[in-house]
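Here is one chain, start to finish.
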Amino acid sequence: GIMKNIFLFLFFSTSFSLASNWNINASVISSPSKGIIGIERYFIDNHFSLATNFMYFSDEYLEFGLDTKWHILGFNGFYLFHTSSWIHGSGSIWDKKKSDWIDRSENNYWRLIFGLGIQYAFFKHFGIYGDAGYEFYAGNGGYYSYFDGEWGKLNNDKIKFPISIGLMFPF
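Its structure:
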């Protein structure tokens, strides 16, 4: 639909813009605000940023997203963030209880994360970051607190607070 097209437009436009004040991120653990790997563009004297991120990928799922951050003190220091990512399933899994295949390619969900992080550049082109957030999911006409990746289902059985640390490479 229209939301998917807007999301894809923003994803690619932030990925390929030719502006300065960029940052490439690589996470040790998939970051709730920066993904496994991401590219970020800074605006307004480094107090605001937009990023595209690859959050997760496997044979079963692909997740990529966009995030916005408000850097309270500028580039170095604390930031508040919101990440919106799209989860798309692929492949099938055998459901023993129903004696039938579950097609995960029908699974398309939004993952929404709000959180707090801190980053610091030690050198002009090298730094570290850490962040934590609260996540929930939108799909199937409702909101859920947990995504069961094995079965590709949303439920409210658990609550997750994703955390991560990682390296950043400003340029």
